[in-house]
Amino acid sequence: MSTTVIISMATIGAILLTLIPTYIISYKTKKSETTTMSDWAIADRSLPIYVVVGTQFATAMGGGVLVGQVGICATSGVGYILYGVMAACPFLLLTTIAKWLRKNNFVTVPDIIGKFTNDNKVIKVFAGIMSLIVPFGWFSSQLTAFATIYSILTGMDYALLIIVFAFMSLLFVMPAGLKTVAWTDFIFACFMCVCCIACLFQITSMGGGLGQIVANLNAQDPNLLNFSGSLKHNIGFTTAILWIFSVLPGGMTNQCYYQRICAIDDDKKVNKSLLITALTILLVVAWTVYMGTSIRSINPDAGNNATAWFMGQLPVPFMAIFAALIVATMMSTASSGAQTTVTNITHDIVPVFVPRMDDKRMLKLSRILTLVLVFVGIFVALVVPNIMTQIVATYAFSAATLGCPVFVSYAFRKKNIITTPGIAAGMIGGVVGVAAGMIFKAPISYAAVGMGVSLVAMLVVCALTRNKDVVVLED
């Protein structure tokens, strides 16, 4: 049996083992005739804490961790832990507003901004667009990542792989939106944990034990195992600043995370779920650093191809399982991105133009839009030459546009300061700031430039319009 067949069978097996519970959940939902937009958007606020943690973890992990980030760690060393801290911090910071989010029954980020602007339609549509660009970027990037890896492993056509993966993601979203996406994410997360632990044992054995791995790394480059040295010499402070001003605010305004906060079945467990998720993110980054540096100790030339090199050293059965692991991480991120993008459209944008659409019609529209999204994602994945560059840009625009209007408004919600024109100015300032930073090649992160402009614009306009359109919210 050829390697291509074995890898394909392992991948299909992983997909089927997650689809079975997905359709069981869907069947139960249809049988009780309770499929609603609440199911689609926030799983009808019925997810147990372990599922919420699993889906947050699986969504945040993505295929980039197993492929791109292991390669980064092979060249940069332990300084990459800073990225993990920045990726985990949003979950810690969201604990400050999580209970407030639940109490107000929010579903999306534009819901929050709508609360502070008396549901201004123009602002809410703008917020909806800026919220969906990140999850849509996630969806498209997973298509290209899957096709890149599997075309190398199996020799199959790149474009065909993009199309196959895109339509596979439909199978996880269509039954009941977030309700089925979250449960399959949880199963994927369990599979990821088992495979990642197995990889640790495998790479340690290949490297001759922990002591030999450390000795090899010190001989190659002492900075690899020194946090400050790795950060200064291998990563660079410019990149470190970029992480701080893109990963952190990007996570704090990520629509996918907000939906899962709103989906948990018990308000009292929201913060606990976020803290556990932050811990799991840190553990994943620690795993990534260990895998990357261990591969480097064995093959100093592995570089950004560290994961591909590691897979090439594995016995075929183990290689097939690892390939299925990559598919699991990519599929969880892709399905979450697709579901969240459609939720932003149907919950925040469509009602502005077609008010009072009944639940049944909206659910049908959600499924139609998911199908449309697949075709658009395939087109973008095939046409855009460097989609990761576009992903970084979407993070910057989204964070700069939404960050201050959400968190500054929350901080001053009782102070008679926040106004609708002020929030509008903050959002426009975020877009202008990021665009200016990109055009004029600012020496600091253009996400930081955008957030700075957004903050100043929002506070100045709020002060100028304070007596005209102030929004005061009580807890």
What can you tell me about this protein's structure?
The chain has one domain (3-387): Sodium/glucose cotransporter (Up-down Bundle), CATH 1.20.1730.10. The protein is built from 20 helices and no strands. The chain has helices at residues 3-31, 37-42, 49-76, 81-94, 98-103, 109-116, 121-154, 158-173, 178-206, 210-220, 227-235, 237-252, 255-263, 270-298, 306-312, 316-353, 359-383, 387-411, 420-439, 446-464. Helix 19 runs antiparallel to helix 20 (446-464). The model has no long low-confidence stretch (mean pLDDT 84).
Radius of gyration, rounded? 22 Å
The pLDDT mean sits at 84
Strand content: under 5%
The CATH superfamily turns out to be Sodium/glucose cotransporter
Task: Please report the number of helical segments.
Answer: 20
CATH topology (level 3) name: Sodium/glucose cotransporter
CATH class reads Mainly Alpha
Give the CA-based shape: globular
The biggest beta sheet reads: none
Total domains, how many?
1
User: What is the N-to-C succession of helices and strands?
Assistant: HHHHHHHHHHHHHHHHHHHH
Cα distance spanning the termini? 63 Å
Helix content: over 70%
Determine the structural class based on helices, strands and strand pairing.
mainly alpha
- Unreliable residue stretches: none
- Please give the number of β-strands: 0
The CATH architecture comes to Up-down Bundle
